[in-house]
Request: fold
Amino acid sequence: MSEALKSSIYDIVVIGAGIVGLSTAWQLLQRYPKYRILLVEKELEVGMHQTGHNSGVIHAGVYYAPGSLKADFCQRGAKATKAFCLQHGIEFNQCGKLLVATNALEKERMEALYLRCQENGLEVHQLDQNQLKEREPNVKGVAALFVPSTGIVSYQKICQKLAELFVQKGGELRLNTEVQNLDESHERVAITLNNDVVHTSYLVSCGGLMADRLTKMLNIPTDFQIIPFRGEYYQLPAKHNHLVNHLIYPIPDPDLPFLGVHLTRMIDGSVTVGPNAVQGWKREGYGRINIDLRDVFDMVRFPGFWKLLMNHWRTGLMETKNSWYKPGYLAQVRKYCDLVSLDDLQAYPAGIRAQAVMNDGSLVHDFLFSQSARTLHVCNAPSPAATSAFPIGAYIIDKLDEQMTSV
Reply:
C-alpha cells in the first residue's frame, strides 16, 4: 500500500462540525485515543449553522415526554454543559426560566407542564399572579412556572473549545471541505471531499440540514426529509437589557414542536425576542428573502411536505403573516410584556431549524438515527440538541461500538 493511500485511511470520519459533531469527535478520541479520526466541515468555521443561530439557552427539559431520548439527553446534557463550561472557563449564567400563562387555556396547559416537570424529576415552582409580579415586574400573566436550572451560554464558544481540544488530542479537522459523495463497501467507506478521496472504517454523519441527503448518497432507506423552518429573531435596544430577570417563555401549544416567541437574556447582556417558525425555502437561507431551487424542488416532490402543510396550514399562515407584518409579531410578545414597542424590534440574525418530516406528514419530535453496516447518521437532532450534545455524542459512540463488534 502506497504512503499516499495510507495517509488517506482513517479509523473514523465524522461529518459536520456543529456542536453534536464536535462533541462526538472529541469523545471518540477520548474513548479511542490511538484511532485516526477526521472531522470534516464544509464551512470556514465550526458551529456555523444551527449551533451558531440559536437562543443560547441551556434547557432544563420541561417539555419532553418522560422516558424519551429528549428528556434523558436534555437533563444529562444540561449538567454536562455547565460542567464543561466550569472546567474550561466558558461563561454561563443559570438565570432560570419563567413560563407565563396569560389566560385560562394557557394556565390549564401550564398545569400539565408542571406535572411533566415532576415526572421528569425537575425542580419547578408554581407562581400565582402576585408571585410572578414580584419576580418580573415588567411581565404580566395569570400564573407562571419557575424552572431555576435553565441557563444561557454561547454555544459558539463551546464549539470553538471542543475543536481546540479535538485537535490538541490528535484529531484532524478539515474546514472548508464539502462531502460530494459517499460509497460504502464491505471493508470501508470512501468519501469524496472536494477533489480528494479518503477512506474510513466507520463514518458518523452529523449533517444537520443536509442529513437526508447524506443518507441518500449511501442508498439508505430514507422515509423522512429535512424541511427547513426559519426562526426569526429581533434584538431589543440596550435600554431594555434589564427588562427581565429571567428567560420569559409563553406556554406552548402541545401539538407543535415550536416553543413560541420568547424573551431571552443573552450571555452578552442583551435581550432577544423570538423565534417564530416560518416555512423556509432554502436550507441555509439566513437572509430576509431566501430561495434555493434544489431545496424547493426536493420539498415539492416529497409527499410529506404537502401533508404537513395541510395539517398545519392555519399555523403556517399566521407565522408567515407575522413574519412580514411586524405588529403581528409584536403582539406575540405584548401578550406577556407590553413595554416592548414596534421601534424596539431591531434586526437580528435568523436561524434555521432542520426539521425531519415523515412521509405521512408527521413531525419527528424526538432524536432520529439511521445506519448501515459501517455508517451511523443523526437524522433529526431538534432542540434541545445543543444542550444535549454531550450525551448525544456518548450515545452515538455506544451505537458505533455495537456496529464495530457486529461487522
About this structure: The two ends are 23 Å apart (CA to CA).
